[in-house]
Amino acid sequence: MALTFDDGPTSPFTEQILGILRERSIIATFFVCGRNAERFPEVLRQIHAEGHSIGNHTYSHPYLYFQCRRKIAEEIDRTQDLIEKLTGHRPTLFRPPYGARWFGLYPVLRERGLQVVQWSDTGYDWQNKADAIVPATLRRLRPGSVILLHDGVRVAAPGTPANRFQTVQALPAILDGAVGAGFTFVSVKDFLPGS
């Protein structure tokens, strides 16, 4: 199965998540927002340095519905350029904000060689407390599951708190529960054709 995090990076929560993953030798995929990567470039570099995959989650986390191709391309390109500048690698993965897809999105992605990655399981960590995140995440796991959690809060303005404490609190039990059920974690890239 694959473990994915959206909306970061956000300090100190992304670093705490990285520490938990490091302790258990688990790899994950982080779908980052460009604006948050600008705020926390050292955290983005740490994600990359520790061997996790990085995907594009747009620059400012807009709904892509009713957006023109030019606006979609700007959101994606700005984040692609930033991630490449900070890590030396250009993402090949893309997750649309809110999972929302719009007809203008797919031509933009094809032109850039990006693959859409959605999810199959989530703990609803954007609204639940840790004791509810864990069972919600583990409830329907199966081989090939893609888990969605969050290490950031969309795109907050500088100085705006982004609290992912509940996700950090829930993560060890999620990982231990999945491993205890016989699952192993891989990068979401391992699920995609041609990877």
Q: Domain count, please report it.
A: 1
Radius of gyration: 16 Å
- The share of residues in extended strands comes to 5-15%
Q: What is the 3D shape?
A: globular
Looking across the biggest beta sheet, what order are the strands in? 3-2-1-7-6
Taking the alpha carbons of the first and last residues, their distance comes to: 15 Å
List the helices and strands and how they pair.
Blueprint: E1 2-6, H1 13-24, E2 29-32, H2 34-39, H3 41-49, E3 53-56, H4 69-87, E4 93-94, H5 105-112, E5 115-116, E6 121-122, H6 130-138, E7 146-150, H7 165-180
Parallel strand pairs: 1-2, 1-7, 2-3, 4-5, 6-7
Describe, in short, the structure shown.
The chain has 195 residues and is α/β, with parallel strands linked by helices. The chain has helices spanning 13-24, 34-39, 41-49, 69-87, 105-112, 130-138, 165-180, and strands at residues 2-6, 29-32, 53-56, 93-94, 115-116, 121-122, 146-150.
What does this structure look like?
The chain is about 40% helix and about 10% strand. The protein has about 200 residues and is α/β, with parallel strands linked by helices. The protein has a single domain (about 1-190), classed as TIM Barrel, CATH 3.20.20. Strands 3-2-1-7-6 form a 5-stranded parallel sheet. The protein has a two-stranded parallel sheet with strand order 4-5. The model has no long low-confidence stretch (mean pLDDT about 95).
